[in-house]
Amino acid sequence: MPETSTHAQAMTIPELPKAYAPADHEDRIRAAWDGSGAFHADPSRVLNEKAAPYSIVIPPPNVTAALHLGHALNNTLQDVLTRFHRMMGFETLWMPGTDHAGIATQAVVEKRLRQEGRLKGSLREAFTREDFVTEIQAFKDEYEAVITGQLKKMGCSCDWQRQRFTMDDVCARAVREAFFRLFLDGLIYRGKRLVNWDPALQTAVADDECYDQETDAAFYYLRYPLVHERKHQGPRDEDEDPQPATWNELAARGYPGAEEFPAEEPAWITVATTRPETYLGDTAVAVNPHDPRATALRGLFIELPLVGRIIPIIEDGYVVLPRSMAGTQEQAADPKAEFATGFLKVTPAHDPNDYEIGRRHSVDGAMHEWTRARGHPVLVNMMSPDGRVSDRHGWTDVGDAHELVGRKMAEARKMVVELFKARGLLGDVRPYRHNVKHSDRSKAAIEPYLSDQWYVKVTDPRLAKAANQAVATGDQPAGDHSLRFHPERYTRTFEQWHDGIRDWCISRQLWWGHRIPVWFGGVLTGDPQEIRTKLAHWEEQGRLAVRSKPFGDTREMAVALRLDDAVEQGDASASDESPRANQAFADTMICVRGEHDREVIDFLEEVGFEQDPDVLDTWFSSALWPISTMGWPDPGLASKMTGIGDFEALLKAFSPTSTLCTAREIITLWVSRMVMFNRYFMGEGHGRGPVPFRDVFIHAVIQDGDGHKMSKSLGNGVDPLDIIASHGADAMRFTLCQMATNTQDVRMPVRRDPATGRNTSEKFDLGRNFCNKAWNAARFGIGILAQVPPADHAPLAPGTLSLLDRWMLSRLRTATADINAAIGRFEFSVYAQTLYSLVWNDFCDWYLEGIKPTVAADAGQRAALHASLGAILRLLHPVAPFVTEAIHETFRLLRSPGVAGLQLDASGRGEMLCTAAWPVIDESLDDPEAEREFARVQSLVTSIREVRAQHQVPPRRRVTLHLPRHVEPTWRPVQALLSTLAGLDAVTTEDPPATHAVFSFDGRSLAVSGMSDAAAIDTGAEKARLEKIVADNEKLMLVLEGRLANPGYAQKAPPHMVQQTKDQLAKAIADRSAAAEALNRL
Questions:
Q1: Residue 374: its pLDDT value, please?
Q2: In a shared domain, residues 157 and 242
Q3: CA–CA distance from 570 to each of 377, 561, 567, 574 (Å)?
Q4: 848 within a domain of the structure (yes/no)
Q5: Is there a single domain that holds both residue 264 and residue 350?
Q6: With the C-alpha atoms ordered 1050, 1053, 1055, 1061, is the resulting torsion angle positive or negative?
Q7: What's the rounded Cα separation, in Å, for the pair 832 and 1000?
Q8: Helix 69-87 with 828-836: angle, nearest 10 deg
Q9: Residue 808: C-alpha distances to residues 798, 930, 977 (Å)
Q10: Claim to verify: residue 275 and residue 403 sit in the same structural domain
């Protein structure tokens, strides 16, 4: 459309700098966002039905260290979702915050104090609890500020006014209430179980806080003497030694191989173990009932060397038979079968498999009869919390093993081996390499340890079953009471976890964390009746709950394993600070509801009750994150605590949240527990409440180029701030988004940048180049639009625009629809790739190149350019917010009549792009005819460009296109466009001169001339090129003809595939004919 405006003066618009320098813009733009309040959620708009809600709670980063590239990926994807929905008109809340990360943070601070020389020896001797918590609080404040700064530098559009911390007053109130309700409902109990024990930090640790390390070890073959039972049990009495069983007796019993030993010598059996030091805790020896030796051993016992403990021989199918005895196919395949002797030392207090054997045989069988008749404990704990052999934590029959007491477990292992060797009781020692579990925090080897711990009974149907019932299946959409995983395959991970779930150990023997709000009966000073009266009164008021221990399913366990007997031998609890029991309230546990209920707490402590010293597992507070951050259980109190007055509206408006974005390794540890807690607490304890989020997106994990996890220790990690400094935040974000496929892992080759000495990756160059391309395209477009003021008329009808404009608008409509669908399906790499193709290929390579000669004089074209650039900036903004906001600062000053059907609503707060509306492009701009016609232009231009490249024609040289006379009319309407895009000076039907190049297009032979000043084209090279085209198409024709001649393909393949093959064959025939014709002409 030609220019019709009479305005003579161009608009005064500042010119964009020639190059985009992220450092020149990012801090300024971030400050503008913060100052505008653009990211602050207003729940009243949701409750007043002015906007639909969209909310995300950030997976809170641990305050242990700065964020890494995995955090950058996770938060980039969340920000894409948040910015997209904000521009779509949703009232968005992205709740930021950090996690106190109990064991991790305590370990880091303790390590720092040791490095600084401020901590030597035991932590509990060097610091009081209060002083150490003060140290951690200062560390937390330091790194919380670092993390917040990093997130802001990444461009995260969180509601920073609502930032939470898992131990702040608001979240602490939720944790206290949740514990109290679960305690009151019998879903929290205290029990003695085997746990993963970190002897360095002296706390129980979760499975996810451990890692396996392949370690060189050995199988030690220990000989245990066989004896007859003596009358009196307990420590050995010199006057009443047990009667040894002899080899002669075993031979008479039919024991295979017994006759090979001296008849009157004492007999023994051999156990193979990698942990000889734990023999001090043995309470039985197990043999497989299918072992031919089992029958002969019935009625005999074992006397443990040195300690003199008499233990039974039991039969259990778990015992691996030696490979020589065949056994089951499964047992024969067990690597340990090669090392097995058929006899297993059973140490229930120090091995989880032995613990299960103890459970089975303490209910019925030999161990049951043995323990009932003799008061013999099934569990003997021979280790103290600091990982030393101890006779004060459940083991008292020391006997001649007293020199082992106080030794570290590794040292005790060597000593036991030497002691057995000295007594002729050590058989073979065979090297063995296996995985040993280590603490991720202290790096110490994990010890299975019997201790008193607190548990949540997640096996209750109100928790685990309710979580599985919340998963949407089939075509069922996600909603308030159902959630959906993306990719869907992770649904099975979630369901299988709950199918086989075990009760959750929630106590940790630390100082940093939410302290368990339970008081135990100590040495009381008050009148017991008065105490009971007060407790009953406060319990009736709902201020506390009273329980007796053990309760829940621990009573059954205590009876089955005779734990009371184990405790009588010594305190087997996990901490030296364990509360003392007294007669009147020895079994009393009191859970206090309010953290600041001083009347109750002061009274309890005044009369002698003592608070449990342990803290809660970090995941307990994290499991409440979606509701605790919004003020549950008392939004009004949360408002008083913080001065933020809309907590009640916040919880109503944004809970349940919309999306959770996380990694697969915490589906079980975090996602599961959030679902269980949300359904339980928001469903008034029935497990039928809403889910915490409707969609769970599990993103890929970033690895280095060799497939290794990025870590500081391996030196292969990439610091996000380094990439922001070298490439810009948007380059990093776009690259990460482009890598976010639905695979489990993605690889990023890492190299050392010689200029900075820091790790980087060439993959980020793609993002930087793309951002620069967008900047340069915008600079060109704004420069054109600023030169001439817009005509004063209504939005232009698409039908009045040129082919190129209509094609671009149609491509925009398609891309916008594809992007909407991709983000809706959490296909972030598709979103990034669609943007790349739209901006780089469609807009820059074709559209901007095509309009250069005409846009200055064509008002319609400028309107289309303005609309296209405006839409592209908005489509690009969620993934590249800084560069687009910087462009928008200038672009928003431009005015245009626009194009009918493309709606770009004005920006909201501060006229910023981050609050602008998402492009709405209706069906009127969908122009298949324009896309087909321009696709022909693109195809011909591409062919001409290939010929130019083959003949090394300089870009500025104009060439002539020679068309057959009957073909030329079909190209006449787009000749000007062809000339612009292909670098033509003319399109003619005249015969080409002698110096020309021939190429095939659409089954015809076309020619290009004027390519060189030379006297002639290299006919030899041209001939070779055309002959190759002929040969390649003939090969392709044979393949396609063979495929179509195959009855199986023609009959079974989908019709569209058969037609596609026919079309390919027709094109190959045409291209072959055109090339052959060109050869003849040459």
A1: 60
A2: no
A3: 12, 16, 5, 12
A4: no
A5: yes
A6: negative
A7: 35
A8: 70
A9: 11, 9, 14
A10: yes
pLDDT reported for residue 1 = 41
Q: Which two tokens stand for residue 888?
A: 């928008």
DSSP-derived 3-state class of residue 411: helix
**Paired tokens of 923:** 């069906």
| Location of structure tokens 């870009």 | 955
Show Cβ contacts of residue 1014 under 8 Å, excluding neighbours closer than 6 positions: 995
Note the pLDDT of residue 2.
40
Q: How many separate domains does the chain show?
A: 3
Domain-embedded: residue 580: no
b/e for 425-449, b at 16 or more Cβ within 10 A? bbbeeeebeeeebbbbbbebbbbbb
pLDDT, residue 1016, reads 45
For tokens 């913060």, name the residue: 34
Phi-psi region of 308 (alpha: psi -120 to 50; beta: other; left: phi over 0): left
The list of the chain residues with pLDDT below 50 reads 1-10, 232-234, 236, 238, 551-582, 1014-1016
Rounded-to-integer distance, Cα 1033 and Cα 1037, Å: 6
Q: Where are the alpha helices (DSSP H) in 643-746?
A: 647-654, 672-681, 720-727, 729-739
User: Is there a domain that residue 755 lies in?
Assistant: no
| Together in a domain, 330 and 416 | yes
346 and 245 housed in the same domain: yes
Q: CA–CA separation, 742 vs 953, rounded Å?
A: 44
- For residue 845, the 8-state DSSP code is I
DSSP assignment, residue 919? P
Confirm if 154 and 724 have CB atoms less than 8 A apart.
yes
**What's the CATH code of the domain at 241?**
3.90.740.10
Instruction: Note the pLDDT of residue 192.
Output: 86
Give the integer Cα–Cα distance in Å for 849 and 933: 17
Residues 6+ apart with CB under 8 A from 512: 100, 102, 105, 106, 109, 132, 133, 136, 615
Q: Map tokens 């320098």 to a residue.
A: 21
DSSP 211-273: EEEEEEEEEEEEEEEEEPPPSS-SS--GGGPPPBPBHHHHHHTT-TTGGGS-TTSBPEEEEEE
Which range marks the domain in which residue 991 is found? 932-1081
Residue 913: the pLDDT is 96
Kindly give the pairing relationship between strand 164-165 and strand 97-98: parallel
* CA angle (683, 546, 690) in 5-degree steps: 10
The tokens for 1041 are 């003809």
Identify whether residues 142 and 251 lie together within a single domain: no
End-to-end CA distance of the chain: 43
Q: Please state the length of the chain.
A: 1082
Q: What is the CATH number of the domain that holds 1019?
A: 1.10.287.380
Answer for the pair 763, 734: CB distance below 8 angstroms, yes or no: no
Burial of 704 (0-12, 13-18, 19+ CB in 10 A): buried
Token code pair at residue 465: 């079953």
Give the bridge partners for 439, in sequence order: 210
> 423, 438, 453: which is the final residue of a domain?
438
Angle at which helices 763-787 and 881-891 pack, to 10 degrees?
Answer: 10
> Using omega within 30 degrees of 0 as the cis cutoff, is the peptide bond preceding 550 cis?
yes
Query: Mapping DSSP to helix (H, G, I), strand (E, B) and coil, where does residue 321 land?
Result: coil
Domain boundary residue among 666, 699, 732? 699
- Are both 159 and 221 inside the same structural domain? no
Give the span between the Cα atoms of 93 and 40, in whole angstroms.
Answer: 7
Q: Residue 923, Cβ neighbours under 10 Å: how many? A: 7
pTM of the model: 0.86
Do residues 161 and 284 share a domain? no
Own/partner contacts of 105-113, CB < 8 Å, gap of 24 or more, are: 105/62, 105/63, 105/64, 105/136, 105/139, 105/140, 105/512, 106/136, 106/201, 106/510, 106/511, 106/512, 107/201, 107/441, 107/442, 108/64, 108/65, 108/139, 109/135, 109/136, 109/139, 109/512, 110/201, 112/139
